Amino acid sequence: MNESIKGNKRNREPGQNTLWDETRAEPYLEFYDNVITQMDLEAFDIKTMETRDLAELCENVLENLKETDIKYRNYSKVHFPMKIIMNYESYPDPFHAGDGLVVSVMMSKHWNKTWGGEIITYHDTEPEDIVSAFPGRIYVSHGTPWVRIQQPNIKAEIELEFLQFRLAN
């Protein structure tokens, strides 16, 4: 593919517009294990939760995140709590945090890494990092680079479940 950069504009092929980041920032994704335990996951069924309950769960995750890493203590309000439920036929949209952060929590209770569901970061429309899906893992993406949760493959015996919310500066 022949691509050229002219100022801040770039000649792109169709379909790449969604993963282009005008700032050309490097992806910055952190993840935290053992903040949400298997027992915590067993206590929640996000498939049946209403928006108010999801918001409360997101606030609890934020409090746990603050205890784990002090840099999150400046954030006090959860924005846009949502659940993401996927199977192998799902086609998840990429997302980015803009001026803030996107927190994604893998809520599937019993997940086999051979089933897919990885978190993929992008730089200049190309995959940059691939991080495995792990029950209870918290992923925090920063800034404008695009991120996508890969749908599970056909071998997955259960649906992939994520809790997701935004934090703004």
Notable traits:
10 strands, about 170 residues, three-stranded antiparallel sheet, alpha+beta, globular, disordered N terminus
Care to describe what's here?
With 169 residues, the chain is α+β, with helices and mostly antiparallel strands. 14% of the residues lie in helices and 30% in strands. It is built from two helices and ten strands. The strands form three sheets. It has a five-stranded antiparallel β-sheet, covered by helices on one side. The longest helix has 18 residues, at 51-68. Mean pLDDT is 86; it is low at 1-16.
Radius of gyration, whole Å: 17 Å
What is the residue-averaged pLDDT?
A: 86
Any low-confidence stretches, pLDDT <50, length ≥5?
Answer: 1-16
The count of DSSP E runs of length 2 or more, i.e. the number of strands, is 10
Question: Could you state the order of secondary-structure elements as H and E?
Answer: EEEHHEEEEEEE
Percent range of helical residues = 10-25%
Instruction: Tell me the major beta sheet.
Output: 5 strands, antiparallel
Assess the beta-strand content as a share of residues. 25-35%
**Straight-line N-to-C gap:** 38 Å
Total of DSSP H or I helical runs spanning 4+ residues: 2
Shape: globular
Q: Tell me the strand order in the biggest sheet.
A: 3-8-5-10-4
Name the structural class: alpha+beta
